[in-house]
Amino acid sequence: MRDSLTTVAPSGADSAARTVSRAVRRSMVVPCQAVRERDFRLVGRQVIDLSEDGVLVRLDQGGTTTPRVLTGESMILTFVAPFSRVFVDAEAFVARVIHGRRPGDRGREIGLIFEHIEPSARARLTRELAWLRPTTARRREPASRGSIRLG
Question: Cβ neighbours of residue 110 under 8 Å, at least 6 residues apart?
Fold first, then answer.
């Protein structure tokens, strides 16, 4: 299942709005191994959200420091497909880094978008994820106007 998202091109580009398709995320905790490609360091062991286009991975808290991961970094990901014992291998890149400092954050996490995943594995994900409810968006409470001080 996919949602549609309307975006507007930046100024100077084609001014027509275009519709972009985006996969629906499903909340599911699945064991994984997320490895940073440049140094083959294990950075995460748990998928939190899953879609046919990518995953949200909790960063590994083991050891003395949490690994530093940068937006755009290449990752190698292996995880167990939902409702099965089939392993899925994917190449992905970091689209988002969540530092865990904002209210509502569950800790340090990274959003990965699949660059390469076998078509059969993507089809399996699409089929199995259809059984799960979509993830509800986590929203922060907006600051009240009275709490902002200028000057």
Answer: 34, 43, 44, 56, 57, 59, 69, 75, 94, 96, 97, 98
